[in-house]
Write a structure and sequence with these properties.
The complex is a heterodimer of chains A (284) and B (483). With 284 residues, chain A is an alpha/beta fold. Helices cover 31% and strands 31% of the residues of chain A. A 7-stranded mixed beta sheet of chain A has the order 8-7-6-9-10-12-11, sandwiched between helices. A 5-stranded antiparallel beta sheet of chain A has the order 1-2-3-4-5. In chain A, helix 6 crosses helix 7. The longest helix of chain A is centred in the last third of the chain and has 17 residues. Chain A starts with a strand and ends with a helix. Chain B folds into 3 domains: 269 residues, Type I PLP-dependent aspartate aminotransferase-like (Major domain) (Aspartate Aminotransferase, domain 2), CATH 3.40.640; 106 residues, Aspartate Aminotransferase, domain 1; 74 residues, Molybdopterin biosynthesis moea protein, domain 2. Chain B has 15 helices and 20 strands. In chain B, the strands form 6 sheets. Chain B has a 7-stranded mixed beta sheet with strand order 1-10-9-8-6-2-3, sandwiched between helices. In chain B, strands 11-13-15-14 form a 4-stranded antiparallel beta sheet. In chain B, a hairpin with a 5-residue loop joins strand 17 and strand 18. The radius of gyration of chain B is 23 Å and the shape is globular. The chains are: A alpha/beta (284), B alpha+beta (483). Chains A and B meet through helix 5 and helix 6 of A and helix 13 of B.
């Protein structure tokens, strides 16, 4: 018997992982959740059939979404994490002793419950005393916050389905309001390669740029995401991720990371020409 | 005799059967189940085109229904508590016109509030019926027209004992309901028919804790826009009648103007939606009520906006309020409703139903989701943060009492010529001017144009209202009656 998980990256491209055995399948109020075990990527989970996290390559995503802003501003104390039900983003954030408080807002409690059970590798720090979990719509949560956070991390699904509201102008505007005057917004920024994802990426970039004076995009290579080429958005009210990078201070923390280092930090903002063009033409 | 089991959907079932027979079409429509128009079929889907068919024996005929349409009408009548229900495919406009034309003829009087939809006044032009307008009153703070008070209706009846009918908006666009039961009793005591424009009230027939429906209140006819809050396709609608009217006569009146090529897509959508609401309506509208209630609370928390509801009830001109309507007063943040409406669409890709001078209206219905409401609330919060300004200088009055010089029909068919709107004060208007939506005329044919009306039109235009009704597409000139 052969069992394969297949994700349709486009109408004409498929990506498959051989499954050792399915571990969980369930339907929440918002989406279908599946967990599989595989030889190549270990345990992985999907939402509505789309790949979210695998044990083997999650370090890349979580390193990049957390350490880039943290190395830019070492004084970050209050953090809001939106989405991120697998817990990986929170795990990386809790490594910083300077961080005093983390609000994590995940719309779907079942995602967190399932990850706690099947993916302790990422969910292991959700009970850190600095972490407060909220199970509600991120768009709603951020609406009532003003001048409250140093960093907002938007670790969302794609902009179709329950994550849709997290790619809207009203969401970014509310994030701007929720951030302090030197606040940073980092978001999962989709992929530039396949047309459908590139469109989402452009739309997000265009809308973030309307609110934030500093608006940059950086990249990482994530093997299990469509095309493997993935982007993150770095937006802020004051800090520039390159000019304000404090290499020595970050390296002095002595954090052991498998993907991120300050050389990567400097390099990841260098983008291929076609991506630059997509970002420039995002307004059209 | 068939059973009136609401789980049935006779038109839908007949279409399913028709499809399964793989009939070879040598009749119209010429696209022949979509094969003749591949691009359209690709766009709308093969399933859709395959049932876009013509009347035929097994599918009955809307003009003279004897089988499946007849059965579907009876099921609908049963579901709505009416003596009979007509399937309408020319929109609720046709239903409103059929109501008036069924009971009023040339020279008859009809009592109505002035804030009716243009379809009602159109019916007056066609039939030569004379309107007796009742001032619905205005909520000064919100600038919205209210319902007719019982006293105002009584007064109109006493002054016009020869009137044939009373026409009521229930609810208004904003959700305001008149005392339908008392007005109906009053009208019936004076031998007048009660016609209700219930375009925005489909859900009253199926939900709980909602204002009374026209049929339940004993009204004689009601035009129900199934497509507005009931889930059927745009342009499909029901006309409901009580036993005081002859089904045959009303059908003859409908057939004067309704198409003889009734769309089976529209008919099936009515049939399926009626089934859905009859079976699931209670739960659906419970959810709709909860969503609207939640949205109102969240919007009122933002501050500046006022999402109003049942607290407006005053026992008379606001006898009841449809709390599924999400009507929001915006002027406190210094923005006209139409400005908020435009920003929501242009900047946030959120399309709401209407914006007027002081309010916006979002329709919450069978198809809504919580996540979408969060977007609306968050966008409103952002609009306040980004665009709030001083409210000084904003026009705050909406209802203008009309000076009716001649009947709409007389004015429409008289000799007219065009003048710039700015120079039209004092003349008798020969055509309509209205913002669309809501489609309630600012001016109707036969009314005297005043400076106040011109100011209102100019202001509405400046704020971005979509003005319609005049022959001049740019709405700069207006046709006046040569007296």
């Amino acid at each position: 018997m052969e069992l394969w998980y297949t994700e349709q990256h486009t109408d004409n491209v498929r990506f498959s992982i051989k499954v050792d055995k399915p571990l969980f399948s369930g339907q929440s109020e918002f989406q279908r959740i599946d967990v599989f075990n595989s030889v190549e990527f270990g345990i992985f989970f999907t939402l509505d059939g789309l790949m979210m996290v695998t044990e083997k390559d999650e370090f890349i995503y979580h390193d990049m979404i957390v350490h880039v802003p943290m190395a830019t501003n070492s004084k970050i104390k209050n953090v809001l994490v939106i989405g991120a039900g697998d817990g990986g983003t929170v795990r990386e954030l809790t490594r910083y002793s300077a961080i005093e408080h983390i609000d994590m807002v995940e719309i779907d409690k079942l995602v967190v419950d399932v990850c706690r059970k099947y993916l302790p590798q990422t969910a292991c720090k959700l009970d850190d005393p600095r972490v407060q979990l909220y199970f509600e719509d991120g768009l709603k949560f951020v609406r009532s916050k003003e001048n409250a956070y140093d960093l907002i991390v938007v670790d969302s699904t794609d902009p179709f389905g329950p994550g849709e509201g997290l790619f809207t102008r009203e969401f970014y505007g509310n994030c701007f309001k929720a951030l302090k005057e030197d606040g940073i917004l980092v978001n999962q920024h989709e992929s530039p390669y396949y047309a459908e994802y590139a469109k989402s990426m452009q739309r997000a970039h265009k809308r973030i740029r309307e609110f934030f004076p500093v608006c940059r995009v950086y990249q990482a290579h994530i093997p299990t995401y469509p095309s493997g080429h993935w982007l993150f958005g770095f937006a802020s009210k004051t800090y520039d991720p390159l000019a304000d990078l404090d290499e020595q201070s970050w390296n002095n923390l002595g954090l052991k990371t498998r993907y991120y280092n300050t050389e990567i930090h400097k390099g990841c903002f260098a983008l291929p020409n076609y991506v630059k063009e997509l970002l420039v033409s995002a307004d059209e | 005799m068939h059973s009136l089991w609401q789980g049935k959907a006779p038109i839908y079932e007949a279409l399913q059967k028709y499809k399964s027979l793989r009939v070879v079409p040598f009749d119209v429509p010429g696209h022949k189940q979509g094969r003749g128009n591949p691009q359209l079929t690709e766009f709308l889907g093969e399933k859709c085109l395959s049932v876009d068919v013509n009347s035929m024996k097994p599918l009955d005929n809307l003009v003279h229904p004897v089988s499946v349409i007849r059965e579907a009408e009876e099921l609908a009548a049963d579901a709505f508590g009416a003596h009979h229900a007509f399937f309408m495919v020319n929109g609720t406009t046709a239903a409103v016109q059929a109501m008036i034309m069924s009971v009023c003829k040339q020279g008859d009087k009809i009592i109505m509030p002035r804030n009716v939809h243009r379809s009602a006044i159109n019916a007056l032009i066609i039939s030569g019926t004379i309107p007796v307008y009742v001032n619905p009153g205005v909520n000064k703070h919100l600038g919205i027209p209210l319902g007719m008070s019982v006293a105002a209706v009584r007064n109109a009846i006493e002054n016009n004992p020869d009137a044939k009918a009373i026409f009521i908006n229930n609810p208004t666009y904003y959700g305001i309901c008149s005392d339908l039961r008392s007005i109906t009793e009053l009208a019936h005591r004076h031998n007048m028919y009660v016609l209700v424009d219930e375009a925005h009230g489909t859900h009253f027939y199926f939900g709980e804790n909602l204002p009374i429906s026209a049929m339940a209140a004993g009204a004689d006819m009601a035009a129900v826009s199934m497509h507005k809050t009931g889930g059927s396709l745009t342009q499909s609608s029901f006309l409901l009648i009580s036993s005081r009217l002859s089904t045959g006569h009303v059908r003859q009146t409908i057939n004067l103007t309704q198409t003889t090529s009734g769309s089976y897509l529209l008919l099936a959508s009515l049939d399926i939606s009626r089934r859905n609401l009859a079976l699931e309506g209670k739960n659906i509208f419970k959810k709709v009520s909860a969503l609207a209630h939640y949205a109102r609370e969240e919007i009122n928390k933002i501050g500046g906006y006022y999402a109003f509801s049942t607290e407006l009830i005053n026992g008379d001109s606001v006898f009841d309020f449809d709390h599924t309507k999400l009507s929001i007063y915006t002027r406190e943040i210094g923005l006209a409703g139409i400005e908020v409406y435009d920003i929501l669409r242009d900047d946030y890709e959120i399309q709401i139903e209407l914006g007027d001078i002081g309010n916006i209206l979002a329709i919450i219905s069978v198809g809504d989701r919580e996540l979408a409401l969060e977007r609306l609330v968050s966008a409103l919060s952002e609009i306040k943060r980004l665009y709030m300004k001083d409210k000084a200088g904003m026009l705050d009055h909406e209802y203008i009492n009309p000076d009716v010089v001649m009947t709409p029909q007389q004015a429409f068919y008289s000799t007219q010529h065009s003048v710039p709107i700015s120079d039209s004060a004092g003349y008798v208007c020969g055509e309509f001017v209205m913002s669309y939506p809501p489609g309630i005329p600012i001016l109707a044919p036969g009314e005297r144009i005043t400076e106040e009306i011109i100011d209102y039109i100019t202001y509405s235009k400046a704020k971005g209202c979509f003005l319609t009704g005049t022959e001049d597409m740019s709405v700069k000139n207006i046709k006046i009656v040569e007296e």
